[in-house]
């Protein structure tokens, strides 16, 4: 084990923020960058949105819809830590990218709007994190607005998500009476005063020990009494702080705050970098590979295509799993079975791109791609040439459509386009079980992907298509013997298709249909992700 390598690994944190749209992910991201010193002033969300559209949007569609289709990664330093923040798409529809981003993260921050509680998208993303067993930190946002009772929110985490919680801080007041947060670990109260910058600048908290007589004076008798009662209640009612359970993903530490006014943001960041795990060993086809191993390895979890429509260039995002990355290094591409040179790699520090000369396990680097990479590809140096990681699962799409090409002669181009776009991971392509049905079926996690597909097929492959949506909302990969596809295809609420690896998949109208089918077919297994 090399000492400098393990030191570098210990300094790395790679995490993603999971939330429902509008919970405040963009705002919190910006504030983390502010406290990390990567930016010096936070703009209003509106101004930032406008600027973002002027600079980073690469597709006409994004401009038209005013959304950002692709997710990105930002690096910043905090204290002595190198932090990789993986951003998941923030629009109303999420995509496979969102799921895959979580495979590259070592922990997740679950952002919840204090008025809305656990919302559907948060729940789906939570399930993916749970499947991976990564630690989940909860930030309950918008405490400067009136929301649900903090204790009810904790109960909701348990009831809806089935996870026990341990509040690390506790809010004093809510809405316009939100004064600050009490840190249970240090037993200090962080009080915030009026701030003229409206959250644009970092703010300092006034910290007082909970025993300090000044505190009662500053808070006022009623708020002080409420705080003391709250503390007592939590000590007996809540789960005990247990870092091992947090790291095992069994217990979520909870923080309250306001990303807009910055209250509680720095406190969260401080505890987060201490509690969040550094990269751990990952399981490969050659057993577990330690992050500080002499073997360099990484996998591609996202490909961003055609940033400039005039070129077919792409950017591949690689998560480094072990060892040291050096600019210009030669690595083995395990799927292609040949050496390639990684000459041009970069990272994004805040909004600026910078070339990197070295990176370590836990870092995410962007590689210029001339068509060499696919989602899931593994690169390795000084290790087994056929190394692969099984981190990237294919999850059930939620929207399905038949693809009809307008000019039959363009069918070949259609197949080529569908193949490329499915390799990029934008959509999944299925072949119908019925021999008479020739149109391919596509599935996507977010319905917006259909628009993206139509647009890109026309722009890049010169194929105009019509998409006929199908009345299904989930897919299940079927495992087991005695499976008769015909029996499932005759029903109204299901149909059988094959995925690109010829594995049988059942498309279902809804979860109800699934329950019935499970009852009638106890000999079969129905998986929500590709085996
Ligand atoms: P998202 O990326 O999760 O979709 O959320 P985003 O940060 O864009 O925030 C959504 C809305 O919630 C924004 O308001 C933002 O200002 C607001 N917000 C975020 N954090 C907080 C908070 O801690 N407290 C309060 N009160 N509001 C918060 P908007 O009206 O949609 O946009 P804008 O008019 O502020 O630009």
Task: List segments where confidence is low: pLDDT < 50 over at least 5 consecutive residues.
Answer: 44-48, 50-71
Total DSSP helices: 15
CATH topology of the largest domain: Rossmann fold
Give the class from helix and strand content and strand pairing: alpha+beta
Walk me through what this model shows.
- With about 525 residues, the chain is of the alpha+beta class.
- It has 3 domains: about 10-70 and about 90-275, P-loop containing nucleotide triphosphate hydrolases (Rossmann fold, 3-Layer(aba) Sandwich), CATH 3.40.50; about 280-380, Elongation Factor Tu (Ef-tu), domain 3 (Beta Barrel), CATH 2.40.30.10; about 400-525, 2-Layer Sandwich (Alpha-Beta Plaits), CATH 3.30.70.3280.
- The chain is about 30% helix and about 30% strand.
- It contains 15 helices and 31 strands.
- Strands 18-17-23-14-15-22-19-20 form an 8-stranded antiparallel β-sheet. Strands 27-24-26-25-29-30-28-31 form an 8-stranded antiparallel β-sheet. Strands 2-3-1-4-5-11-6 form a 7-stranded mixed β-sheet, sandwiched between helices.
- Helix 8 (about 215-220) packs across helix 9 (about 220-235).
- The two termini are about 35 Å apart.
- Residues about 45-50 and about 50-70 have low confidence and may be disordered.
- The structure holds guanosine-5',3'-tetraphosphate.
- Guanosine-5',3'-tetraphosphate binds next to helix 2 and helix 3.
